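TASK: fixed-backbone design
INPUT:
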C-alpha cells in the first residue's frame, strides 16, 4: 500500500462552508473537552458555526478568508484569517482558526496551513495569532513555535 498523496492547499470557497463547520466543531470539542463547560460542548454544533464560515467565505472583505487542506477523502484542515478584532493596527492580520483533523496531525499540515494563511492574508500585513497556545490551546503551541511565531 502506497503513501497517500499530500493534501492540496487551496483558498476556501463559499461551497466549502458546511464542510468547514464540521471539523471546526469536532476539533474544538476534542481540544477543549477538558476545559469547556459541558453546556458549551452541547451547544456547539455545525449549524451554530456555519454562519461564521459563510461570512468568512463570502468574499465581501478581501482581507478575510480561509485556506483548506483537501485530501483524497475530503477536508483535512483549515486556517482562517482576517483583520484583527482588537486594537491592533488596521494593517495587522489575525489567524482566527487553525484546525487539523486527528488523522492528519503530526504530518506538518498545521504548519503548512499556518504558513499558507499568513502568506495569503499578509500581503502586506504583519501577522498576529489569536491566543497562541499554552495550557488552553495545547495542540496549537508546537505548530506556532516550529514556525517561529
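OUTPUT:
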Amino acid at each position: 500500500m502506497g503513501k497517500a498523496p499530500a493534501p492540496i492547499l487551496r483558498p476556501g470557497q463559499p461551497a466549502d462552508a458546511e464542510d468547514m463547520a464540521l471539523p471546526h466543531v469536532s476539533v474544538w470539542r476534542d481540544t477543549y473537552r477538558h476545559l469547556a463547560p459541558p453546556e458549551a460542548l452541547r451547544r456547539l454544533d455545525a449549524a451554530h458555526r456555519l454562519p461564521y464560515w459563510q461570512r468568512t467565505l463570502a468574499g465581501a472583505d478581501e482581507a478575510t478568508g480561509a485556506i483548506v487542506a483537501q485530501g483524497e477523502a475530503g477536508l483535512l484542515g483549515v486556517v482562517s484569517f482576517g483583520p484583527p478584532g482588537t486594537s491592533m493596527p488596521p494593517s495587522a492580520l489575525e489567524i482566527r482558526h487553525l484546525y487539523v483533523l486527528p488523522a492528519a496531525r503530526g504530518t506538518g499540515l498545521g504548519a503548512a496551513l499556518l504558513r499558507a494563511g499568513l502568506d495569503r492574508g499578509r500581503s502586506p500585513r504583519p501577522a498576529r495569532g489569536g491566543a497562541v497556545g499554552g495550557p488552553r490551546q495545547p495542540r496549537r503551541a508546537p505548530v506556532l513555535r516550529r514556525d517561529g511565531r
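COMMENT: The domain at 8-146 is CATH 3.40.630.30 (Aminopeptidase).
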